[in-house]
Structures are given as structure tokens and as C-alpha cells.
Amino acid sequence: MAYVRESAPPKENAMSTTASEHPTVAVLGTGIMGAGMARSLLRAGLPVRVWNRTQAKAQPLAADGASVCASPEEAVRGADVVLTMLHDGPSVAETIDAAAPGLAPGALWLQSATVGPEATVELAGRATELGLVYLDAPVAGTRLPAEQGKLTVFVAGPSGARAAVAPVLDAIGQRTVWAGEEPGAASQLKLVVNTWVINLVNGIAECLNLAEGLDLDPKVFLDAMAGGPLDSPYLQSKSAALLSGDLAPSFALSTALKDARLILEAAEQTGVRLDLVEASAARFTRARAAGHGDEDMIATFFAGRPEQP
Length: 309
Description:
Layout: E1 25-28, H1 32-43, E2 48-51, H2 55-58, E3 67-68, H3 72-76, E4 81-84, H4 89-99, E5 108-111, H5 117-130, E6 133-136, E7 139-140, H6 143-148, E8 151-156, H7 162-172, E9 173-180, H8 185-213, H9 218-225, H10 233-244, H11 253-270, H12 275-292
Parallel strand pairs: 1-2, 1-4, 2-3, 4-5, 5-6, 8-9
Antiparallel strand pairs: 7-8
């Protein structure tokens, strides 16, 4: 682990500073990532309470030992740590407001959805109003690492909360990178990481587009890359998924588009020009319009095929 455990004197009504080996965790949002993270928490022996707007998506977690709750308020009642893994800033804000009557003063809020630095700061302000300890904690990884507890977690928040949140971070991730104490620092890092991922997946898609256009067997291209300095597990796995027709989302294309727009917003605010991300967002937009939004983001491949007359 990259983080350093630190302890602090316990404070009255401040769960965040009282370390427990088995904190109760409320997971709000059990989509692709949230469900996997909840299962990792359960494997680690932590009590887990889950809620999802569409309850059918949360119900399978009952078989793994989670308590499935009917509302955010019910899910957070008695929780030491609240973990949000929802689509965007507005959905996180709406959910935490719905949970407010059940929140305990001093509880930890591990905000892991990718919402961008601006929304992160707004959510941190809401946490202060609710008496929560806010941790800006987006993750790097897709469905399988979430299921395996092998995510990389970027965290920004008070050092005094590290010991208390350590069992949760140990359960969901193989590595934790502490980006600082101010909310927004971890979200900034996540946008930089996602810039690499988004451009990489579109680079893979364009290589496969050109191979198809030239009537070149894409496997010849992949074999030529295999084991060399330009090869990568990501190239091979994403290509294999596309060529086999397995587009079950490990990271949905519509979510990648949302993240690309957050990156472009951040770039505009700082005066940086990101030509590749602009092109990636355009490809994602075309692929979503063609009906591929709920598929894995490698479905951006379909945005590069010749237009039919």
C-alpha cells in the first residue's frame, strides 16, 4: 500500500478518528463498480449495507451477505463509512441529501464516483454541513479489479481519518495513493489517469478500424505487437473483447463519454488544449448515438467504420 497509516486521538461522535477493524460500510450505488466493491468489502469480513436506485441491481448482493436497503437513509443508518459510487455529481448530491436523516455525525464519506474537481469541492461543502468527514476517493480500474479488490484508490482528505478508513481501502484496492488533504486533489489525479485511458482505448479502436479497412487480419497486428515494447495487456484484452463480440461493459462507453467531458471542462478552465480527448469524446458520442452507449467503451470502434449510404 502507498498510504501510511496514522492514528489520532479519538473524538466524541467522530467515527472517522476511531479506528475499527470491521467498520460498517454503506455502499450507495451498486452498478458495475459499486457491486464489485461491495463484494470485496464482504470478502474482507466487513458488514455491508447496500442501496441502488434500481433495487434489482442491489438484490443479488444479499446472497453475498449484504443487507439490501430500500432507501439511502436506511442504508446509512448505523454506518461508520458511507461509500458513494454513482454516475455523476448531481446523482451523488441527490443521494446524500436523501440519506441525510440517517447519517451519524462524524461518519466517514468515501466519495468514489468520478464527478470532477468542481463537483468534488461542492460535495465536500455539503459534507461539512452534514457533519461528515469527506474523503475525495475516486478509483482506477474496471469491473474485474473491483470484483477482485484490486483497484487503485486515489484519496484526498484529512490524515487523521487514514487509520479508520484503512480496512475499507485494504478491501477494495491493491494500492492507495494519497494525493493530499484538500478535496479535489484526488479527483484531479483521476482525470489525468482517465485522459490516458480514454485516448488509449480510442487508439486501439482506430488501429482495428484501419486493419479492417485494409482487409488486414487484426490478429496479425496483435501478433506483431505481442511481447514487444509497444505491447500492453490493455491492447490485447480490449482487442480480444471486440474481436470475440463480448462487449459486456467493464467500463461503459456512456460513462467514458461523461468522463471525457469532465476532462475537457477541467482543461478549458485551465487553458489547456486537449485535441486527443476532444476527438475521443466525438467518437464516443457517435458510438453512443449508434446504440453502443451501454456496451464496453471499446465499442468506440463502431464510430470509425465507414458510414453507410
